[in-house]
Specification:
This protein has 13 helices and eight strands. The protein is α/β, with parallel strands linked by helices. It has two domains: 233 residues, TIM Barrel (Alpha-Beta Barrel); 38 residues, no CATH class. Strands 1-2-3-4-5-6-7-8 form an eight-stranded parallel beta barrel, surrounded by nine helices. Helix 10 links the parallel strand 7 and strand 8. Helix 4 packs parallel to helix 5 and helix 8 packs parallel to helix 9. The radius of gyration is 20 Å and the shape is globular. Keywords: Lyase. InterPro entries: ICL/PEPM, Pyrv/PenolPyrv_kinase-like_dom, Pyrv_kinase-like_dom_sf. GO terms for molecular function: lyase activity.
Length: 296
């Protein structure tokens, strides 16, 4: 029996949203975390650009990971898990023709929703200072190009605005309305600064014809609200992009500190998978089954 998951069928994410099933998507950026998250009770996974830039390049999320880095990682994850994948695509990695190329490349890679931003290029993480956005007309044109570029309506366009931090919530909500009018399937107002701001976003954008997504980054610029509360406020999806990064880095630091201090991992207080668990996580069951059938 093949132990590896089958990729999610096209349109799986759209179908969940149409059924009004609230979607919680943890952030993933490499295959161990993606496989673990895939086996949990989540409706989708979210490929975080911060995580890919940090884990793949050892660099900050400041527009330094390019299209090839991100599209290839998206392909690997999308084809290695059974849940729909939402994927960060920054500002589209260039001008309008690059956005068209990015949309088609992500769709071909098996991603089910692509996130595009209105920041100036190079962009920055949405929970850092000094982010600047392009003029509204330019931001809308990006979304119009993305909507026209996709092959199937099952491939969802997420339009993110970072206008809240520099230009205020009114401008961010106005941009969200414009993005929905331009054809975005999902609108993403980045880094609201209070629960009341989340309430306003839900109240003013929920009727604009697009689903709403919230970004939960504990210790970031926004308060962390529960999935249940976000649903009450009018949101349809929520991502937790840093949950694995924050947890994994803390666990790795603790495990290595214990080894450095004791000269052994025996008795370490840090939880660890044993080798059998790792074998099963990466799919050795499939190798063993193949060998039983074909090895001489």
């Amino acid at each position: 029996m093949n132990a590896l998951p089958c990729p999610a069928p096209a349109g799986a994410l759209r179908a969940r949203l149409q059924r009004r099933e609230f979607v919680v998507a943890p952030g993933v950026y490499e295959m161990l975390g993606a496989r673990i998250a895939d086996r949990m009770d989540f409706a989708a996974l979210y490929m975080t650009g911060y995580g890919v830039s940090a884990s793949h390049l050892g660099l900050p999320d400041a527009g330094l990971a390019g299209y090839t880095d991100m599209q290839q990682r998206a392909r690997t994850i999308a084809h290695g898990v059974g849940k729909p994948l939402i994927a960060d695509a920054d500002t589209g990695f260039g001008g309008l023709i690059n956005i068209r190329h990015t949309v088609r490349g992500y769709e071909e890679a098996g991603v089910q929703a692509i996130q595009l931003e209105d920041q100036e290029s190079p962009k920055k993480c949405g929970h850092t200072p000094n982010r600047r956005v392009v003029p509204l007309a330019d931001a809308v044109r990006r979304i119009e190009v993305a909507v026209e570029a996709r092959r199937s309506r099952d491939f969802l366009i997420i339009a993110r605005t970072d206008a809240r931090t520099a230009l205020g919530l009114d401008e961010a909500i106005a941009r969200g309305k414009a993005f929905a009018k331009a054809g975005a399937d999902i609108v993403f107002v980045e880094s609201p600064e209070s629960e009341e701001e989340f309430r306003r976003i839900g109240g003013e954008l929920a009727g604009e014809g697009a689903w709403l997504i919230a970004n939960m980054v504990p210790t970031g610029r926004s308060p962390e609200l529960s999935a249940r509360r976000l649903e009450e406020l009018g949101f349809a999806l929520a991502i937790w992009p840093a949950v694995l990064m924050q947890s994994a880095c803390a666990a790795m630091a603790a495990a290595l500190a214990s080894l450095a201090a004791e000269g052994t991992t025996a008795g370490s207080p840090v939880p660890r998978y044993d080798m059998q668990q790792l074998h099963l996580l990466v799919g050795f069951e499939d190798v063993w089954a193949f060998e039983r059938r074909w090895a001489q």
